[in-house]
Specification:
The complex is a heterotrimer of chains A (278), B (289) and C (257). In chain A, helix 4 runs parallel beside helix 6 and helix 8 crosses helix 9. In chain A, 38% of the residues lie in helices and 23% in strands. Chain A has a 6-stranded mixed beta sheet, with helices on both faces. A 3-stranded antiparallel beta sheet of chain A has the order 2-1-4. Chain A is globular and about 50 Å long. Chain A has 2 domains: 198 residues, P-loop containing nucleotide triphosphate hydrolases (Rossmann fold); 66 residues, no CATH class. Chain A has 278 residues and is of the alpha/beta class. The N terminus and C terminus of chain A are likely disordered. Chain A is built from 10 helices and 9 strands. A two-stranded antiparallel sheet of chain B has the order 1-2. Chain C has one domain: Orthogonal Bundle (MetI-like fold), CATH 1.10.3720.10. In chain C, helix 3 runs antiparallel to helix 4 and helix 6 runs antiparallel to helix 8. The longest helix of chain C is centred in the N-terminal third of the chain and has 35 residues. Chain C is globular. Classes of the chains: A alpha/beta (278), B mainly alpha (289), C mainly alpha (257).
């Protein structure tokens, strides 16, 4: 408890998690320890990726941060507040693998949805959505319906929507997971550009190693049964350009993430003793 | 098999809720009658128009006609089972016709383009209005020694209502195989008939089962409605009309007949549910929408 | 197979062959009108008795329309309650499923007893009850079957259940609502027509068909049937038009009944 509380007093802390555990289906034969004793600190403006195989709890961790699911024990502080407070004060924006746009609203009205719910005036909403459309380069499609857009464009709308109320924290759950490789790389560059412009703190869930390395300041490696953090790898790629993906440094980082994932792939049996630690 | 058991357990719970719903309706019925004695309601709440629930139940044991041996209950049961036979006949004819239509429409694009609008339109128009006329026609037809009976007219109407959901469901099912599966069959140089038997029929099952349910329901409703509008004797539809005329003397009788019609519907629903469990037990749980 | 086959002329060709064959059959076989009147006879009866047809169709259509409106409102309210309160859903869902096979029109004699049989009321009510179920079942489905990610998004935006209902569930249910209406509207006409066979006022289509048939005026009876068909078609097409109006172009998400 103690170090977390100290951290949360620090204005530089965007996210402070300690001793977090979460068990699904308690008491059932199919009981799953989704998260076990997770510790994670993210400072303001940092970009971290959560990576790991299916079932490692990376999406669950994201949902706990967003107060979309409850947790059993431990402490979670989002900018010094509980996840529930943070959600109610709209301190984060979220984007999912599915763009989850409303078919019955135009692109603009989709972006304005969070603003409507936050009680913004119409003129302010229009001003803000125009700004965001410009940022994601979709101004020409303002009055289109979502289904008229390609998958990549839809995802850009979803990102613009997550930025609408200008929250300090962005939660992203495999937002590029359903896109083809070329679109994906272009979207990664756009996300980095948006990050440069806005200085958001970003927690990014992915199962692509190159994506995690390319985007992040720090890659957090997780492993399943029970879901926990097994390694954290600092990436210092500096300013990204066309050559970054070809650089030795990039490949070294990719290799070390891959190795971190592999190590824990074989050590499942020993770690299952963590189970039931509440 | 445990999935089947799970579904049965789920069904039993639903049944309990349905019974609770029925009990709620009975209570509201009595409550309405009680309120009717206190203040003027816009409808008749007298014992004649709205008999007590227990009066309705006692109606089961009343003799059908004064001094007769058979009770109303027995009369209703025999009428309902007669209607069940007609509905079954209509169902079989409707399903056969619907299936043939679907196969023809699937095989020949011209037939699909030409017939489908009419198949759909046939459901949006009250062709049931033809019922009194169909009986008139039926009385005049004979095929050699076989005289057309009015019961055939009822079956015809029931079949008419039943064919549509089936032909639409079957057509959708026959069109269901993915292009990849069709290309695979093509690579085997399979004939159209082979494709139909080996691929199209099996892949249409998930569409066929819900369509069969709707068709069965339609044939029951069609039978009762046809009995009412054609005036064919012997079934539950006609019995209701007859009993409705006796409400002044015996208000409970018509309710027993209405319960009989409802019971007929529920029996068919139960049969369909059983068949559904049987047919779809080998299919993946997550069905299509 | 000719892939350039149009969508317009195959149905027209089928209709022409059907009507032509019918006319030919009647003429060649010299069928009497009580057996099968020729299309030409039906057409002439229809045009000569146009005022009668119009009056009867107007009466039945009014019953059907009132029942459709009343039943739709009831169905929508029940669906909203079922979405909000799980108990209502549990009570109503199995009843609605069971009643699919029940000939609800059988309630007409009971309603005739409770309400004034000489008025339109019992017919409107039985129509409303029949309409209620397809609306209830489809709209409830539309309110409940909401994309899980979109629900999570609403939660992340701190939306109240009421806001979620307004912003997400109701728009999501609109295509389902029209699926229900497309089933309900033709049913309303059929119910209003068949309810007339249980006695009461005689000016509707159902009563007129029965009495024309009883008086062996078969040509006229068929002409009334034609009027009933046109009435049903108008109801159906009106719903399609309403759907086009409400739902933006190409957004008509197909839902199954």
């Amino acid at each position: 408890m103690t170090p977390t509380q100290l951290d949360s007093k620090n204005p530089g802390s965007a996210l402070a998690i300690s001793g977090l555990s979460k068990v699904f289906n308690v008491g059932n034969p199919n009981e799953v320890t989704a998260l076990s004793d997770v510790h994670l600190d993210v400072h303001t403006g940092e970009f971290i990726s959560l990576i790991g195989p299916s079932g490692c709890g990376k999406s669950t961790l994201l949902r706990v941060i967003g107060d979309l699911t409850a947790f059993d024990s431990g402490s979670v502080q989002v900018a010094g507040k509980s996840p529930e407070e943070a959600r109610k004060e709209r301190l984060y924006g979220i984007a999912f693998q599915q763009a989850a746009l409303f078919d019955w609203r135009t692109v603009t009205r989709n972006i304005e949805l969070p603003l409507e719910l936050a009680g913004w005036q119409k003129s302010q909403r229009q001003e803000r959505s125009a700004e965001l459309l410009d940022m994601v380069q979709l101004s020409d499609f303002a009055h289109h319906r979502p289904w008229e857009l390609s998958g990549g464009m839809q995802q850009r709308v979803a990102i613009a929507r997550s930025l609408a109320v200008d929250p300090p924290l962005l939660l992203m759950d495999e937002p590029f997971g359903a896109l083809d490789e070329m679109t994906r790389e272009r979207m990664q560059n756009e996300l980095l550009k948006i990050r440069m412009e806005t200085g958001k703190t970003i927690v990014f869930v992915t199962h692509s190693i190159p994506e995690a390395v390319y985007l992040s300041d720090r890659v957090v490696v997780m492993s399943p049964r029970p879901g926990r953090i097994t390694a954290e790898i600092e990436v210092n790629l500096g300013d990204r350009n066309e050559m970054t993906r070809e650089s030795d440094h990039f490949f070294r980082c990719v290799t070390s993430v891959r190795e971190a994932l592999r190590v824990h792939d074989t050590s499942n049996s020993t770690s299952s003793s963590h189970r039931g630690e509440i | 098999m445990s999935a089947t058991r799970e579904r049965i357990a789920k069904g039993s719970v639903s049944l309990l809720w349905a019974l609770a719903g029925i009990a709620l309706i009975a209570i509201m019925w009595e409550l309405t009658k009680f309120v009717g004695t206190l203040i003027e309601l816009p409808f008749n709440t007298s014992d004649q128009a709205m008999p007590h629930v227990w009066t309705m139940l006692s109606g089961f044991t009343v003799p059908e006609v004064r001094g007769s041996e058979t009770t109303v209950f027995q009369a209703v049961v025999s009428a309902a089972s007669y209607s069940f036979t007609l509905a079954l006949g209509g169902f079989v004819i409707g399903v056969t016709v619907g299936l043939i239509l679907a196969i023809v429409m699937q095989r020949f694009l011209f037939m699909e383009r030409g017939l489908l609008p009419f198949v759909i339109a046939s459901q949006t128009v009250p062709l049931i209005a033809l019922a009194p006329l169909i009986v008139g026609i039926g009385n005049q037809i004979s095929f050699g020694p076989v005289q057309w009976s009015t019961t055939y007219s009822v079956m015809f109407i029931a079949a008419y209502l039943a064919f549509f959901p089936l032909s639409i469901g079957a057509l959708r099912g026959l069109h269901a195989p993915s292009p990849t599966s069709l290309e695979l069959m093509r690579s085997y140089a399979a004939s159209n008939n082979k494709v139909l038997w080996k691929l199209r029929f099996p892949s249409s099952i998930p569409y066929l089962v819900p369509a069969l349910k709707v068709s069965a329901a339609a044939s029951v409703v069609g039978t009762v409605v046809a009995e009412i509008s054609t005036g064919v004797r012997g079934g539950i539809g006609r019995l209701m009309v007859e009993y409705a005329r006796e409400t002044t003397s015996q208000p409970a009788k018509v309710y027993v007949a209405v319960f009989g019609a409802i019971a007929l519907g529920l029996v068919v629903a139960a049969v369909i549910a059983a068949v559904d469990v049987l047919l779809t037990r080998n299919l993946p749980k997550k069905g299509l929408t | 197979m000719n892939t350039k086959l149009g969508y317009v002329w195959p149905p027209i060709l089928v209709a022409t062959i059907f009507l032509g064959g019918w006319q030919l059959l009647v003429v060649v076989q010299d069928l009497k009108p009580f057996l099968l009147p020729a299309p030409s006879l039906i057409a002439s009866e229809f045009s000569s008795g146009a005022t009668l047809m119009w009056g009867a169709a107007y009466y039945t259509a009014t019953t059907a329309f009132l029942g459709l409106i009343f039943g739709t409102v009831l169905g929508l309210i029940t669906a909203l309650l079922a979405q909000r309160f799980i108990t209502v859903d549990k009570l109503a869902a199995p009843l609605a499923a069971g009643l699919a096979t029940v000939p609800i029109i059988a309630l007409t004699p009971i309603l005739n007893n409770m309400f004034n049989i000489t008025s339109r009321t019992p017919r409107v009510l039985v129509t409303a009850i029949i309409v209620l179920f397809p609306i209830f079942v489809n709209v409830t489905r539309g309110l409940i079957q909401v994309n899980a990610t979109q629900l999570e998004l609403m939660r992340s935006l701190n939306a109240t259940p009421r806001t979620t209902l307004r912003v997400l569930r109701i728009p999501n249910a609109i295509p389902f609502f029209f699926t229900g209406l497309k089933i309900a509207a033709p049913l309303a006409v059929i119910a209003a027509l068949v309810a007339e066979y249980f006695g009461g006022p005689q000016q509707g289509l159902g009563s007129r068909i029965a009495s024309a048939a009883a008086n062996t005026a078969y040509g006229r009876a068929w002409a009334y049937v034609l009027a009933a068909i046109i009435t049903g078609l108008i109801f159906y097409l009106a719903i399609i038009a309403l759907e086009r109006l409400v739902t933006p172009r190409t957004a008509q998400v197909t839902t199954t009944a």
